[in-house]
Every structure is written in structure tokens, then in C-alpha cells.
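JOB MANIFEST
job_type = single_chain_structure
chain_count = 1
residues = 152
[input]
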Amino acid sequence: MRAKWTLVTAVVAAFAFLTGVNGPLGPTVFGWRPAPTITAPTGVQLPLFVLLGLTEALAFGFGLAFLLFGYPWLRRAGPAPASLTRLAHLSIAWVLTNWWSHDSLHIANGTDLRGLLAIEYAYHLTLMLAGVLAAAWFSGVVRGGRAAPGGG
């Protein structure tokens, strides 16, 4: 199973890295490119942005592997309602996979505030919800399936 996780993570990470907004295939595959209002990185900024892009691509690859193979792992972690376990599974995958498209959209959007608001709401609110769902699942597992205080 570890080989499957590693293979999916590596293949998807390579695809994500090459197709990000700054990647050589980004404009070809997705049609996105840095907005004209984005300045080019200088000095140490360039390798730091490349490192960040690589890290985001690896998180995207691992997130997809988690989406494919992680649900049984969560089910075995402890008693929790099946629906909450599935929501936690999807939430954790979203927390891992969103960064690649999130940052690429920021760079492609540039300083357009209407686009920025759409990106921020679409990503930040869903990440907050994902955190709440993952915390609720974890709380249920820690409690051994007993209801959390305050109902539910």
C-alpha cells in the first residue's frame, strides 16, 4: 500500500508542479499565466517560490493519494459515525490539495479585487469548514464514539 501512496503522490505532484500557473505546462493545460500586475521574483525570492510550489505540488499529490486510499485508515482509527468519517476524509483531502490551485489562482488573478474576493471566499471558508469537520471527527474518535458536549 505504501508503494501505491508513493506512486500516486509522485506522479500527481509532478503533474501539479508542471501545470501550476508558473509551470511550463500551466498556460497550455489550464490557460492560466501570471497576471500582468504580478512582478517577477528577484534574488532569493525565486528559489523560495519554487520551493513553495514544489511543496504545494507534493501536498496535492499526497492529498489525492489520501483521497484514494485514506478512508479505510480513518475508519480504523476509532468509532465515529460513517457520515462524519467520510466528511473528515474529504476535509483532510481538501486541506492537502487546495494549495496548488489556490496559489495559482492568486497569481493568475493578480490584484483584481473582485477575483480576489471570490478566491478568498471559495478557499478560506471551505478550509474553515474542513477544519471544523475534521475536528468533530477527531473529537468523536477520542471520545470513543460518544456524543460531543452540546449535542450531536
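[summary]
The longest helix spans residues 113-142.
The chain has a mean pLDDT of 93.
exit_status = 0
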